[in-house]
Structure formats: C-alpha cells, structure tokens
Write a structure and sequence with these properties.
- It is a single chain.
- The chain is about 5% helix and about 40% strand.
- The protein has one helix and ten strands.
- The two termini are about 20 Å apart.
- The protein is mainly beta and about 110 residues long.
- The longest helix is centred in the N-terminal third of the chain and has 4 residues.
- A hairpin with a 7-residue loop joins strand 1 and strand 2.
Length: about 110
C-alpha cells in the first residue's frame, strides 16, 4: 500500500511490446522489450506464465507500464519497470493502451 503522496511519484507510461520471449530456466518469467518512443526502450520482466500467458499475448500490443522503479535483477538481467495489471478472479488482466501515443504519461 502507498499513500496519495507516494502515488503521485509513480511514473506510468504507454509502451509497445516489440518483442516477448519466455526466459530460459524459468517457469514463470516472460521478457518484454518495450518501446516508449524517442529511442527509449526498456527490458521488463513479468512472471505470468503460470496464469497461462504466453509471449504472443504481449507482442505488438500497447500497455501501461510503471517506468521509474529501481532496476531489479531477475535471472541475471535487470528488469527496468513493471507492466500494470489488475486482479481478476483467476489471473491478472493487463491495462491496454491501444491507440495512445508511445511514451504518453498517465497523470
């Protein structure tokens, strides 16, 4: 849980997944290459394979991402953000941003 002041510091941007692939030696992780426009590309991991998600569920689609988190080591690489999702009954649902400009920031 975060308070309202902390929430105001969270940076949420529109990004398009240009490439997605399962991470070797992991049963959970998918590695996303995310384009935020203006030559801003980040690697972001998501641990959603146990929920039935596959790389093709993300490739060439736009979503909302938290982009100002400290990088986190995952399987020897750094995850440079987090894809935004909401809880569903049995799996998370990702916030799509179809048609929105890349890099647009949610305020």
């Amino acid at each position: 849980m975060i308070n309202l002041n902390d929430f105001g510091k969270v940076e949420i941007k529109v990004g398009r997944v240009t490439q997605a692939e399962n991470v070797e030696k992991s049963e959970k992780l998918i590695r996303l290459q995310v384009d935020f426009g203006k030559e801003d590309v980040k690697t972001i991991f998501t641990g959603v394979r146990p929920f039935g998600y596959a790389p093709e569920d993300f490739t060439d689609k736009q979503f909302l991402f938290v982009t100002n988190l400290e990088p986190r080591k995952m399987m020897g690489e750094e995850s440079q953000g987090m894809i935004l999702a909401v809880d569903g009954d049995d799996k998370p649902f990702f916030i799509t941003a179809k048609g929105l400009p890349l890099g647009a920031q949610v305020r």
